[in-house]
Amino acid sequence: MRRVVVTGVGAITSLGFDARTTWQKLLEGKSGIKRIENFDVSDLSVQIAAEITNFNPEKRIPFKLIKRIDRCTQFALWATMEAVEDAKIDFDGIDRKRVGVIIGSGIGGLITLEREHEKFLSQGPRRVSPLLIPMMIADMPSGQVSIYYRLGGPNYCTVSACASGAHAIGDALEMIRKGAADIMITGGTEAPLTRFAIAGFAQMRALSTRNDEPEKASRPFDKERDGFVMGEGCGILILEELEHARRRKARIYCELAGYGATGDGYHMTAPDPEGDGGYRGMVMALDDAGVDSGSIDYINAHGTSTPLNDKIETLAIKKLLGERAKKVPISSTKSMIGHLLGAAGGVEAVATVLSIYEGRIHPTINLENPDPECDLDYCPEGARQLNIRAAISNSLGFGGHNATLLFRKLEG
């Protein structure tokens, strides 16, 4: 089987405009959650988010292109440019038809959709932009990245709610394994912060209402958690066939060795109460990588800060690890950057890759009153040094979608 490694990372989050800044602030336990600034929230019950402010896409993206793409696509191009530079890829020196793009998005161009719908209602159908559809559809981040670099490999989008980014990375792994590509640009992107979206999630009672202390609102595994905090951004990995990477003397972060994807078949928004789908996804990733649970030294949890998810994911981890469950460190990236929906799996994969590469893991912040049903080691005290042989990153989505990625140190 063709082996796949990570040779580049890129990200944009509420903590920083690049992967390294985001990573450093994660290690420091900084929160990127605050009162929303980009639009009026005075009449909304939820007024906080992990919002990216002062974003100027012109620093990387051509001005004419910016006007033709939604914010979620801007994030995807921005983070991809960083990842490509990080991987030191010269597309003129390789076969572009052997490079593909799979970037997941749970919602796509929601900002564009809302803006043009308002124009439709107030000004009539003739005022709707002819770019509405190509700016709105969820596959356009993948499409625009492919167009920008003139890449001819597999190119599409995965849409599986909050598991979209992880499913994209898993699919990209399979594309390289089966020989359809040598390099894949992959991850997740999302720009869901609009008045309409906040109202919708708030009406579901899915969001935290701690408007008076935003930095403490996302508190995975804590007894006082009251919902997740929405975020925006993008996380991108450059995946590459091992020998291809070695031939061009690429820096290798780690190997992507396993992927598991399952369904709960239970409920639109609630996870299976026995955690069976998440458990089977992790088992599938282990089997795919050819390792047992004793090799797992770290878990980057889905960890949403919702009452059901946190205790059920904990249950699934206990099923997987057995007696080792309380000895394996776990952390939730969402405690600091909120829930990026379709981009969550992408950014959390970047965090997992850097954890293995640097031998450090970030904390889960705001875990002040542990839930008795969440009784594992969630690293509440701060960042740790940790030699990681293998780590898994979990992503779970509305609709019962489960995805697990297994990364490990490169050996052999």
From TrEMBL:
<dbReference type="InterPro" id="IPR017568">
    <property type="entry name" value="3-oxoacyl-ACP_synth-2"/>
</dbReference>
<comment type="pathway">
    <text>Lipid metabolism; fatty acid biosynthesis.</text>
</comment>
<dbReference type="InterPro" id="IPR020841">
    <property type="entry name" value="PKS_Beta-ketoAc_synthase_dom"/>
</dbReference>
<dbReference type="Pfam" id="PF00109">
    <property type="entry name" value="ketoacyl-synt"/>
</dbReference>
<protein>
    <recommendedName>
        <fullName>3-oxoacyl-[acyl-carrier-protein] synthase 2</fullName>
        <ecNumber>2.3.1.179</ecNumber>
    </recommendedName>
</protein>
<dbReference type="Pfam" id="PF02801">
    <property type="entry name" value="Ketoacyl-synt_C"/>
</dbReference>
<dbReference type="InterPro" id="IPR014030">
    <property type="entry name" value="Ketoacyl_synth_N"/>
</dbReference>
<dbReference type="GO" id="GO:0006633">
    <property type="term" value="P:fatty acid biosynthetic process"/>
</dbReference>
<dbReference type="GO" id="GO:0004315">
    <property type="term" value="F:3-oxoacyl-[acyl-carrier-protein] synthase activity"/>
</dbReference>
<dbReference type="InterPro" id="IPR014031">
    <property type="entry name" value="Ketoacyl_synth_C"/>
</dbReference>
<keyword id="KW-0012">Acyltransferase</keyword>
<dbReference type="InterPro" id="IPR018201">
    <property type="entry name" value="Ketoacyl_synth_AS"/>
</dbReference>
<keyword id="KW-0808">Transferase</keyword>
<comment type="function">
    <text>Involved in the type II fatty acid elongation cycle. Catalyzes the elongation of a wide range of acyl-ACP by the addition of two carbons from malonyl-ACP to an acyl acceptor. Can efficiently catalyze the conversion of palmitoleoyl-ACP (cis-hexadec-9-enoyl-ACP) to cis-vaccenoyl-ACP (cis-octadec-11-enoyl-ACP), an essential step in the thermal regulation of fatty acid composition.</text>
</comment>
<feature type="domain" description="Ketosynthase family 3 (KS3)">
    <location>
        <begin position="1"/>
        <end position="409"/>
    </location>
</feature>
<keyword id="KW-0444">Lipid biosynthesis</keyword>
<dbReference type="InterPro" id="IPR016039">
    <property type="entry name" value="Thiolase-like"/>
</dbReference>
<keyword id="KW-0443">Lipid metabolism</keyword>
<keyword id="KW-0275">Fatty acid biosynthesis</keyword>
<comment type="similarity">
    <text>Belongs to the thiolase-like superfamily. Beta-ketoacyl-ACP synthases family.</text>
</comment>
<dbReference type="GO" id="GO:0005829">
    <property type="term" value="C:cytosol"/>
</dbReference>
<dbReference type="InterPro" id="IPR000794">
    <property type="entry name" value="Beta-ketoacyl_synthase"/>
</dbReference>
<keyword id="KW-0276">Fatty acid metabolism</keyword>
<feature type="active site" description="For beta-ketoacyl synthase activity">
    <location>
        <position position="162"/>
    </location>
</feature>
